[in-house]
Amino acid sequence: MRILLFSGKGGVGKTSLAAATGLQLSRLGYRTLVMSVDPAHSLADAFDLETDLFHGKTGDPYPIDGRLAIHEVNIQKEIKQHWREISSYVISVLRTTGISDVEAEELAILPGMEELSAMMYVNQFRREERYDVIVLDCAPTAESLRFVSMPTTLEWYMKHIFPFQRGLLKAVRPLANRVSPVELPPDNYFANIQSLFGKLDGVGELLEDAKITSVRLVTNPERMVLRETQRAYVYFTLHGLTVDGIIVNRVLPPAIKDAWFEEWRASQERILEEIEAYFAPAPVKRVPLFTHEVLGRERLEELARSLYGETEDPAAVGRTEAPYTFAKRDGHYEIRLRLPFAVKGEVGLFKKGDELVVEIGTLRRHIGLPVSMAALSPTRATLENRILTVEMKET
Ligand SMILES: Nc1ncnc2c1ncn2[C@@H]1O[C@H](COP(=O)(O)OP(=O)(O)O)[C@@H](O)[C@H]1O
Ligand SMILES: [Mg+2]
Fold first, then answer.
1. How close is the Cα of 41 to the center of ligand 2, in Å?
2. Residue 13 CA to ligand 2 centre (angstroms)
């Protein structure tokens, strides 16, 4: 099975591109599911479905044709199905603060529930071998990063905090329920957490396996959007996911010859060059700004052709090695950069904002630094077996 994650800033075109990718995949013969994890769902709208008809049926994948289905994760339904005990406990605690039931229910939708629910589906569909490819139409960048960091966080929590808290509660409950204004969580709350955890088992490995999961970052040729894309690239890489393609959407087509748009075009050209340099060697695709919104199957197919032509397979596994990895060793940070071929020559290292730029011979690589390393400077570099190791220290 393959999992393709479409991530990017709000409004850049994730849903349209994920839907078009789904159409291309199903045309090539894959059993495909496009799943929306963005609470502001617009997948059904992209296919221009009668929303009443569609929403009556959500919660289950909705067939578009023989091989393609779409699915909008419906949080209300998920709560009833998977989170009942957790959510009723949270509601009971919230009620003690004096807020209304309606508000309590609304607030009991905790951050991350949508993402976790989607992950449970991914896991379930993988076990059932129901689809060859699952395309995930993610929420804007910050949430999708939470999505991918969740499995490791949860694992840690379950191993270290969960048994401790549970044991402690058993001991203090008889006493605490008499004196505490807030009810302590009942046993079924913990049973619920444990069963959820079971349903998520193995998802972390799926996401980190580059032969299974690829991230496609969607961006527009605008500086502010690019900044967010660069950060997303750094953090997906940091979490062990492989970004194997960048899609620049809404590029002004050359046919537009208009003084009003000249400046836009010049600035887009500059930013496109920057994008190619920054993300190399990840392939960068360009999609033009169409004369219309991408709405309905026909237009999604037009978008798919522009992206992939007739034959390109979006599920093909691109690169499987992380372009760089970060580590902390003996009190300093280390960046390990994999070089594509044996390069020789002086290694040049310099900082540019929160990026590290590495130059060797004619090769140039931009490495975005996570917040924890942004203030550090490169102090030493060693090259061995095509791996360049850069030491980062406070200077
Ligand atoms: N290349 C394009 N040309 C014209 N309109 C586009 C293009 N890509 C996306 N759109 C339109 O832009 C809007 C936002 O796109 P959408 O895919 O919903 O973005 P996101 O999911 O990232 O928020 C939609 O109305 C969509 O039809
Ligand atoms: Mg969307």
1. 6
2. 7
Would you identify the CATH topology of the domain 324-393? Immunoglobulin-like (2.60.40)
Q: Which tokens in the block code for residue 109?
A: 């939708």
Q: Whose CA is nearest to atom 8 of ligand 1?
A: 13
Give mean pLDDT, residues 216-228: 94
Q: Average the pLDDT over 128-140 and give the result.
A: 93
Q: Angle 297-300-301 (CA atoms, 0-180°, nearest 5)?
A: 85
Mean pLDDT over residues 88-112, rounded?
A: 79
Identify the band that residue 222 occupies on the pLDDT scale cut at 50, 70 and 90. very high
Residue with CA at minimum distance from ligand 1 atom 4: 290
Q: Which residue's C-alpha comes closest to atom 24 of ligand 1? A: 293
Which residues neighbour 135 within 8 Å (Cβ) at sequence distance 6 or greater?
4, 6, 18, 21, 22, 25, 32, 33, 34, 35
Place of tokens 């209300």: 76
pTM: 0.84
Helices 113-128 and 75-82, packing angle to 10 deg: 70
Helix (H, G, I), strand (E, B) or coil at 111: coil
pLDDT exceeds 70 at position 194? yes
Pick the CATH number of 2-308 from 3.30.1330.10, 2.60.120.10, 3.40.50.300, 2.60.120.260: 3.40.50.300
Q: What is the phi/psi pair of residue 281, to 5°? A: -90, 15
Residues at Cβ < 5 Å from ligand 2 ion = 14-15, 38, 42
Atom of ligand 1 nearest to the CA of 295: 27
Higher model confidence: residue 116 or residue 351? 351
17-48 confidence digits (pLDDT tens)? 999 999 999 999 999 999 998 877 889 999 99
Please state the domain extents for the chain: 2-308, 324-393
The rounded Å distance from CA 12 to ligand 1 centre is 6
Q: Ligand 1 pocket: which residues have CB below 6 Å?
A: 8, 10-16, 42, 249-250, 287, 289-290, 293-295
Distance 217 CA to ligand 1 centre (A): 14
Query: In angstroms, what is the span from residue 19 Cα to ligand 2's centroid?
Result: 10
